[in-house]
Amino acid sequence: xxxxxxxxxxxxxxxxxxxxLFVLMxxxxxxxxxxxxxxxxxxxxxxxxAAVFGPLAGLLIGFIGxxxxxxxWGYGVWWSWVxxxxxxxxxxxxxxxxxxxxxxxxGLKQCVIFNVVQILANAIAWVGIAPxxxxxxxxxxxxxxxxxxxxxxxxxxxxxxxxxxxIAFAYTKTRTKAGSLKAED
Length: 185
Fold this sequence. Notes:
The protein has 185 residues and is an all-alpha fold. The chain has a single domain (9-172), classed as Orthogonal Bundle (Arp2/3 complex 21 kDa subunit ARPC3), CATH 1.10.1760.20. The chain is built from seven helices and two strands, in the order αββαααααα. The chain has helices at 8-27, 42-53, 55-73, 79-94, 96-99, 108-138, 142-172, and strands spanning 30-31, 38-39. Strands 1-2 form a two-stranded antiparallel ribbon. A hairpin with a 6-residue loop joins β1 (30-31) and β2.
């Protein structure tokens, strides 16, 4: 029998992560002053889950959570931003082994790596992908969508820097470090 693509633990994490992302994006978003752009605490959840469970989990949590959010607003799904969230989760998850959260070794060095990656992933997703797709799919004006992308990316980076880092530090404290248990004689 072949190797499973997703463990049961990861599938459950995707469901829980997408649900939390949906609730936070839908009901706890704080308007930024730029149209259709908000301070979104859910991005810290997306980044944290991707950092623990990897790229496929990050991609699916971002895709499912954002799609559910858009569906409940009643304006239709804004695919450019759904894809940007999915790619953001994927990018964070690609480096999950470097963060060492699951191993219980998320320290200052890993926090710096996590935040450098999330800032770059935010730039790619929100200053690159989302505005480009807004222009290609919806024929939106470039100045509008690049402003939205810059604000969304900046706010996301700030939320993840603070809240995402705290979540990662807290979660790693629940993990047993490799080699820390010794057999008694």
